[in-house]
Write a structure and sequence with these properties.
The protein is an alpha+beta fold. Helices cover 34% and strands 31% of the residues. The chain has a 4-stranded antiparallel beta sheet. A 3-stranded antiparallel beta sheet has the order 1-2-5, with no helix packed on it. A hairpin with a 2-residue loop joins strand 1 and strand 2.
Length: 125
């Protein structure tokens, strides 16, 4: 009994905090509703003011870890697509790609913003 209690006390500090897990094309966001709304508003404001040719590292430093990302090469060019949550469709605590704005980087520089530009790029592969 003492061992079980001791293990529980040792493990307790490791159980707290914000949890985001990515699975099946959705990210679980475990924080209060006003937190995710504020984060999405801040993401929209930052993305609205982005200039094409911005460095990928600058964007990641400002927005943090993307909700989703993809990388691929096409015709000798390296592309990276970062997806940031900007518009929740339903308040279910999960983030899906259709609730994100894609930022497309070519060789580390921003070349397009938004789903239309991303879909045009993907369809040309």
């Amino acid at each position: 009994m003492k061992k079980v209690l001791l293990c529980a006390l040792v493990a307790l500090p490791m159980l707290g905090g914000c949890v985001i897990s990515v699975n099946d094309g959705e990210a679980d966001a475990q924080w209060g509703s006003s937190d995710w709304q504020k984060q999405q508003r801040e993401n929209r404001e930052y993305i609205t003011n982005l200039d094409l040719n911005s460095a990928a590292m600058t964007v990641k430093d400002a927005l943090g870890t993307p909700d989703f990302s993809e990388s691929f090469s096409h015709q000798g060019e390296t592309y990276q697509v970062l997806f940031y949550a900007t518009q929740s469709v339903k308040s279910d605590g999960k983030i899906s790609k259709n609730e994100c704005t894609p930022l497309v980087f070519k060789s580390g520089r921003l070349v397009s913003i938004g789903d239309s530009a991303y879909q045009a790029l993907v369809s040309n592969l």
